[in-house]
Structures are given as structure tokens and as C-alpha cells.
Specification:
single chain; 236 residues; alpha/beta; TIM Barrel; 8-stranded parallel β-sheet; 8 strands; 39% helix; binds pyridoxal-5'-phosphate; PyrdxlP_homeostasis; Pyridoxal phosphate homeostasis protein; pyridoxal phosphate binding; pyridoxal phosphate; Ala_racemase_N
């Protein structure tokens, strides 16, 4: 059995190599440890390995874990699964960033709550770059109007864009998804009145993070390569 610490150092070495190949500074790329479905022992190992950003896709599961790890004040939690408006209050109790913003209704619910609490939240606009109907996220052509619609919601700090590439062995098809997100980023940076910095691209997972880095990823979301295959049901 390979330890999480060993796997993490291998993933970091691969990130560094991918950055060098792309003539990028490795400090520009954050490694998010996707801890969904894993229980406290695995999270302890991840923390001990120096991982400080954990990604979770379900609010109740994440809220419980965040509570268990509340004394680790340098640990940040990212929500990478679809967020329902009725779970906004609970999500905001622990989440430092949301990678799946894809509706104005959700933006409004988040902003209202954040304004009440006098704080802000880092958000990523999720884009469906593969045009697969089963995937959530905005169609690329909807994104400009969408971000302009975010203007009233001043508690949302729009950091950038997020995508899941097409699930395929075809590297060209996967790379095309990442290229589409990077192209959108360029357009948004030039769009008058668009709120946010668009300095972040959240893309790349276990099977494709090096390719994502070649296309400009600033946050890669890695689960299985760090922790092995996920258990079928969430571990409590
Ligand atoms: C599960 C998940 C990941 C991590 O996938 P791995 O293949 O385990 O690296 C990344 N992003 C999202 C949105 C996920 O749901």
C-alpha cells in the first residue's frame, strides 16, 4: 500500500513537471484533494501530507467532516458538487469556495445570506465545455450574459471558471474542453463590466490534470490518484 504522503509527493512532482513543460510557475497551480466519500482516517493522512484544500461534492457529508476538522484552521473546503438553494446556509458554514455556480437563483440565495453575515465567498462559474447533456454547468455561449447578471451580487468574488472535461481516452477531445474554458477566460477578461478577476481556471482531475495545466489550469481537483478508488458509499 502506498501512503497518501507518497502519492501526494508524486502528484506534486507531476504538477511541477507539467508546469515546467508549459513554461509556467508551479506556484500558480493549487492541488485540491478531492476527499469526497473518504472518512476521517484518510482525511487525517491528507492533512499530514500537507494538503490544505479539500474538495467535497455533498453538503451534509462535507459539513460533518468540516466540523470534525474544525480545529485545523489552515484547512479550506471547496464545494465541487451541485449546490441546491435550500442547502446554501449549511454550505456557507464551512465552504471557502464554490466551484459550481451555474444559476442566478443560486447566486442570489448565496449573496443574500453572505450579505447578512457580512462576508464574501470565492466562486467559480461552472461551464459545460463538453456539451454532454448529462453534465451541469452553463453552455459556453451563455457565460458572458451570466457573469454580467452577477453584477448585483457583491458578496460573490468571481475568481474564474470551472469545468469537467469530456470523459474520454481521446486526449484531443479532452484538451479541446480545456481550451474552450481558457478561451472563455480570455473573452471575459476583456468584457466590459464583468465582475471578477477571471484569474482562475479550475480544471483537471486524476486522469487529465497535466493536460489541464498545459491549457492554463490554476486549480486541479485530484481524488483517485491521491487516495485510490473511492468506496462505493460515503464512509462515516
Ligand atoms: C470527484 C471529482 C473530482 C476528482 O476526480 P478523480 O478522478 O477522483 O480525480 C474532480 N472534480 C469533480 C467535480 C469531482 O466531482
Amino acid at each position: 500500500m502506498t501512503s497518501v504522503a507518497e502519492r501526494a509527493s508524486r502528484v506534486r512532482a507531476r504538477i511541477d513537471a507539467a508546469c515546467r513543460a508549459a513554461r509556467r510557475d508551479p506556484a500558480e497551480v493549487r492541488l485540491m484533494a478531492v476527499t469526497k466519500t473518504h472518512g476521517p482516517p484518510v482525511l487525517e493522512e491528507a492533512y499530514a501530507a500537507g494538503l490544505r484544500l479539500f474538495g467535497e461534492n455533498r453538503v451534509p457529508e462535507a459539513a460533518e467532516k468540516a466540523e470534525q476538522f474544525a480545529d485545523r484552521t489552515d484547512l479550506a473546503w471547496a464545494l465541487i458538487g451541485h449546490l441546491q438553494t435550500n442547502k446554501v446556509a449549511r454550505a456557507l458554514r464551512f465552504a471557502a469556495e464554490l466551484h459550481t455556480l451555474d444559476s442566478l437563483r443560486l447566486a442570489e440565495a448565496l449573496d443574500r445570506r453572505l450579505q447578512e453575515e457580512g462576508r464574501s465567498l470565492d466562486v467559480f462559474v461552472q461551464v459545460n465545455t463538453s456539451a454532454e447533456p448529462a453534465k451541469t454547468g452553463l453552455a459556453p455561449e451563455e457565460v458572458e450574459a451570466f457573469v454580467l447578471g452577477l453584477r448585483p451580487f457583491s458578496a460573490l468574488r468571481v475568481r474564474g471558471l470551472m469545468t469537467l472535461a469530456v470523459f474520454s481516452d481521446d486526449q484531443d477531445a479532452v484538451g479541446a474542453c480545456f481550451a474552450r474554458l481558457a478561451e472563455l477566460q480570455r473573452r471575459l477578461r476583456q468584457l466590459d463590466g464583468a465582475p471578477g478577476s477571471y484569474d482562475e481556471l479550475s480544471m483537471g482531475m486524476s486522469g487529465d490534470f497535466e493536460l489541464a495545466i498545459a491549457h492554463g489550469a490554476t486549480t486541479v481537483r485530484v481524488g483517485q490518484t491521491l487516495f485510490g478508488a473511492r468506496p462505493a458509499a460515503p464512509v462515516r
